[in-house]
Structures are given as C-alpha cells and as structure tokens.
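hiii so um. not sure if this is the right channel but i have a protein structure encoded as tokens and i wanna go backwards to a sequence. like what aa goes where. can anyone help
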C-alpha cells in the first residue's frame, strides 16, 4: 500500500494512566477499517476507502479536508472515527501516524493461481503471524477479566461452536477440564438449542463463531441469554448479530480471503484467545488449578508407554 513520504510526527505513547481500551483503540486501525467496511453505510465506506488508500495524507489533513475529499460532512467523519473505537478524528490521525512510522511487518495477501510453493509458504505464514499481532492489539483486557469472573462464578460452562469453530470448542472443553472446571462442549446444532434452553443464572456460556452470524450459534446464544445464563462470545472484530446476546465480547482480528475462507488464521486467533483465557482462569485459582493439572497429568501418564 503506497503512503505519502511527508514527514510524520512522532507517534503518541500511551501513559500508564491511559485506559487500556483507549490504548487498544490506537492500534490496528487499517485492519479495523478493512474488517468493518462491508457493514458500513455508503458514506462511511467512502471515508474508510479513502483512509485505506491515503493514510499518509490523512495524517496531515483536517477533518474538513477529509469531509470534502469524501463528499461527506465533518460529523460523518467524526462518526466514522468513533465507529472504529477512536474518540475522534485526532486520535485516528495519531493511530495512522503510528502505523506509518512503525509499519506492520507483514501484509495480509490473497493467493494467486500462479503462486509457487515458496510464495504460498511465505504468504500463509506471514498472514498468520500478522493475525496474532492484530488480535493481541485489539483484545480488551477488561473484557477478558470480566469473562474470567463470569466463568469462575458459574457452576458449569457450556461451550458452543459449529463447523470450523467446533474444534476450537472441543479444545476449550479439554483445557477447562484440565484445570478442574465443570465444562461441556456442544457442537451439534440441535443439542445446542436444547442445552441452551436448559441453562440458567448459574451457567456460563462460551460461544465461538468467527463471523458472529452463524444461525445455529446465534440462536443457541440467544436461548442461553433468555434462560438467564451469562454469555461470553469469541468472534471476529466488526458488527455481527451475536453481539446482541453477549455479556462479554472477546474479539479476534483475522481476515479471510478469496482462497482462504475458513482459513487457519481465524482459528489461530481463536486458539490464542482460548489459551489466554485458560491461563487467566488457572491463575485466578492457582492452588486448585495446579493440583488439578498435576492430578490429570498423572492420569494421562497411564496412557503413555
């Protein structure tokens, strides 16, 4: 992506007192715009496409100039910034300046039919690396803490996933068992609906859905919410129907491309969040978790020669 060669001011460095959510809002801006474009209105799409094409120019422009260039209003530009999680146009410019001064090392690239094996290896590995970096940058630590509290307070945990997310649900189930949590993974859509309808206030539901719009998982999450369960959802950044029924959202930042729908990038990001969540859950009850891990390790050792 071409950028302006004009000089850029030194990037803003967040102070220790600056809220975590605000610091996160200053990162992965271009990735956020790209993810949200399909869900934006016509005016916001024009603004987003302009920012993606000319990030270096936007850093040196006023809100009025961007509005003029995109045939929109100043209010629309400010609204676009807030849609991304920024407090306003100035914070968007600071974020873009950071990305220009410290450009991402790898760029998500789609595969072409004439790519040889060397190119395929490079593109896929670099895309996976960038997905993990982007997901780390937008992961809301406050939401993570809340998810840990909800799950720890629950008597049992129901984990829902369909399709490619089913294997992530199974992994989360296994990892929770290893630290002594009463958890169940439900990956059949019919059983999900029944299970969700039978939950209650003493149940925590963890739903995993890259799109956040898969009918089966959205329905199961809604039924669980209506039954009084507390709901935690792991889904890709952007607007999606599942957000309406989630008490806590944990976002990934994974971009699927023409040749890589349901790509490993989305599952790697989900697994990274699961790994982080399990670690935080274990640390929240350290002694019990260590004892349970030791006990389950001894059990598993009988399975090895």
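sure thing!! here u go:
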């Amino acid at each position: 992506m071409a950028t302006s060669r004009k000089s850029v001011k030194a990037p803003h460095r967040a102070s220790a007192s600056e809220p975590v959510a605000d610091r996160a809002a200053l990162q992965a801006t271009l990735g956020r715009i790209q993810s949200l474009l399909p869900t934006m209105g016509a005016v916001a799409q024009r603004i987003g496409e302009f920012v993606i094409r000319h990030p270096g120019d936007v850093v040196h422009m006023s809100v009025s100039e961007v509005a003029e260039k995109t045939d929109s209003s100043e209010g629309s530009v400010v609204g676009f910034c807030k849609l991304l999680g920024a407090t306003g146009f100035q914070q968007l410019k600071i974020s873009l300046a950071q990305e220009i001064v410290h450009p991402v090392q790898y760029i998500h690239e789609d595969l072409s039919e004439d790519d040889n094996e060397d190119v395929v290896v490079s593109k896929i590995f670099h895309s996976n690396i960038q997905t993990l970096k982007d997901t780390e940058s937008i992961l809301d630590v406050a939401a993570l803490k809340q998810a840990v509290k909800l799950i720890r307070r629950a008597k049992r945990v129901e984990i829902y996933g369909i399709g490619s997310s089913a294997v992530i649900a199974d992994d989360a189930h296994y990892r929770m068992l290893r630290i002594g949590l009463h958890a169940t993974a439900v990956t059949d859509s019919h059983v999900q609906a029944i299970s969700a309808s039978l939950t209650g206030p003493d149940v925590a539901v963890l739903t995993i859905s890259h799109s956040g719009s898969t009918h089966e998982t959205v329905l199961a999450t809604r039924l669980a919410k209506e039954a009084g369960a507390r709901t935690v959802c792991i889904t890709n950044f952007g607007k999606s129907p599942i957000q309406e029924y989630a008490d806590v959202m944990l976002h990934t930042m994974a971009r699927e491309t023409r040749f890589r729908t349901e790509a490993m990038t989305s599952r790697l990001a989900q697994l990274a969040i699961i790994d982080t969540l399990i670690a935080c859950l274990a640390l929240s009850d350290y002694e019990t978790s260590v004892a349970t891990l030791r006990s389950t390790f001894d059990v598993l050792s009988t399975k090895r020669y």
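oh and Strands lie at 156-161, 183-186, 203-208, 230-236, 248-252.
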